[in-house]
Design goal:
Helix content of chain A: 55-70%
Strand order of the largest sheet of chain A: 1-2
Order of helices and strands of chain A: HHHEEHHHH
Oligomer: homodimer
Largest interface: A-B, 42 and 42 residues
Largest sheet of chain A: 2 strands, antiparallel
Radius of gyration of chain A: 21 Å
DNA sequence: TATATACTTGACTGAAGTAGTAGGTTATTA
DNA sequence: TAATAACCTACTACTTCAGTCAAGTATATA
């Protein structure tokens, strides 16, 4: 069992998608900026998310990704599964051949733990996350900063134009 | 967060110690045979378990390891901690600096998950494991096989002796 | 229809961790 | 003093992570 940036990034990106769904397709470049995740790395992750049927893509200018299902129908466990991170805590994958072909002493402990984790992550949908106050606050902060950055870019262009006129 | 053979082996070995505590110090060679874990690898793990004060050692012939505390006072979470496997699911270690120095969108999700896992593993002591029927069954099977192996070795010695006499 | 935009794919890489192996030294006891 | 078992150090093959780079392909707009 492992949970690394891979699964965390995937969930974060999917949540970003859920939060900005009303704007139409969201480009990975946008998510990359907002969530501070490498664009190329996001491309890899979304390739898997698309193959798993969690998102659909729209190509061409103005394109991007959108959720394939309602936010209430996508749970965190699915997203982590999609990017190939297993939440299984046993070494045998539940086959009970963990110690010289037979069940190891601690087999049931890991089985119980797996059930515990899976139950927890299965019970949380993107809709649940979107509804949380703390998530909304972070999202507001991130959107605010993105707007500032956009203004900065406009200002820079003005300076460049004025510089060109002189 | 990751849970690999390292943590699993450590818990299994500690449970083996708990199950055979009445025999006095248990050698790593015994555990290695019973649990099918590499002896050298066990040495590495027990070095950490000793440093963490979970086991004490007895050197010399007839020596080995024994639990430093009562089985009811040692929980699974401690053992996994001791061999340096973290059960923390956040990337920031709880520092909330996960996304460009600020809290990431999914911070609370990983914090909750960590609490969940830690609570589960903290609530299970070695005594709880020893008391489980499934654990006792596997232990009986392993002890039975160990006894058979011992008989086999005696038989081999006899053959060797007879061979030497001829 | 040219072109910018955006998604897609594959190969590659440095760093880190896993799961060991090998070969010693030191302490104890029979 | 020989055997036993803990203790210690160094090494290695392998895998995965996290990310980069480069070359594509598809599509909408001007």
């Amino acid at each position: 069992m492992r949970l690394t940036t891979k699964g965390r990034y995937a969930v974060t990106a999917m949540l970003d998608l859920a939060l900005h769904a009303e704007r139409g397709p969201i480009s990975l470049a946008d998510i990359s900026k907002r969530q501070d995740i490498s664009l190329s790395y996001l491309e890899q992750l979304f390739s898997r998310l698309r193959q798993s049927g969690l998102v659909s893509s729209v190509r061409g200018p103005g394109g991007g990704y959108r959720l394939a299902r309602d936010t209430a129908e996508i749970c965190v466990a699915e997203i982590i599964d999609a990017v190939n991170e297993s939440v299984d805590a046993t070494s045998c994958g539940g086959n009970s051949d963990c110690s010289a072909g037979e069940q190891c002493l601690t087999h049931y402990l890991w089985t119980d733990l797996s059930r515990q984790i899976h139950g927890f992550l299965n019970g949380i949908s993107l809709a649940d996350m979107v509804a949380r106050a703390d998530v909304q606050e972070v999202a507001r902060r991130q959107d605010g900063r993105a707007a500032e950055d956009a203004l900065d870019r406009v200002a820079e262009q003005k300076v460049a134009i004025i510089g060109g006129l002189q």
